[in-house]
Amino acid sequence: MRAVQITEFGGPEVVAVREVPEPRPGPGQVLLDVERCGVNFADTLLRENGYIVAAALPLVPGGEVVGRTTDGRRLAAMIESGGYAEKAVVSEEFAFPVPDEVDAVTAVALLAQGLTAWWLINHTGRVRPGESVVVHAAAGGVGSLAVQLAKMSGAGRVIATASTPEKRELALSLGADAAVDPAVEDLTTALREANGGGPVDVVLEMTGGRVTGQSIAALAPFGRLAFYGMASMVEPEKVSPRELQRRSATVSGFWLMDAFTRPEVLAKAYAELTARVIAGELSVVRGGDYPMSEVRRVHEALRGRRTSGKLVIDPRR
User: Fold this and answer.
1) Structure confidence by residue, pLDDT tens digits, 149-193
2) C-beta of residue 232 within 8 angstroms of C-beta of residue 209
3) Cα(298)–Cα(43) distance, rounded to whole angstroms?
4) pTM for the predicted model, two decimal places
5) CA 66 from chain center: how many Å?
6) Structural domains for the chain
């Protein structure tokens, strides 16, 4: 079968489409004919062996797929690797039914991005009605969904940040009440001004560097910052426990893989997300539906932060 295989770590030039053996399902697993595979920023880090967990070569990347089993069931699933391929093995325990009303691009977007946004709003960030929520990278896959879910949760004010005027307009069209350029020198003041001059209750942060520290400084008493990524590749400055204590603030981390210890919660979340899509309450921002033969170009655009929304590849092309 055709698949994208990495045989050495490096830049986009190391991803190549090759013929590889078809995977075989083991106990508790099923084989999917893949309709679409999601492409994530984490894939570019994995390609360089710079992700949270070390990778072993050779490697077929890709951690989220949607497709059909040999008995005709349509499933979406998160997997450790192997998604950039015509066929993929998935665990039955972590495979979610996909209604026919939900297209393949949307079904994939509701996996890593959708489940992350849902967990950040409902668990890590614990957004309560009336609270203000800052969503960094609001035009991205997670951010665009988090803006919408925050509004659905009853957030009093949603403040989006995005790097270009076009991306900020997109965030506003999704329901954000204000949009801020994260490159401003004093981001703390900008976030407070966007919140009517007051501190903010919840920040969903995946940028790193100075954005993290200036976002923490914008928190209200009992405010929460949920850190779930570091797209800038710059470590945040150290957080002072005394400063957190002074404002009773909380900084917590989230990695979706840890949520897979609670498969029943994820199944509930995925079902809720698909139901909201069918009801017309939630929409996925499509960043591009590419043939697998163009995977190198997709990685270049994603790492260059030239994309918005969800990127997918079609292994049949």
Assistant:
1) 999 999 999 999 999 999 999 999 999 999 999 999 999 999 999
2) yes
3) 11
4) 0.91
5) 16
6) 2-110+284-314 (3.90.180.10), 114-257 (3.40.50.720)
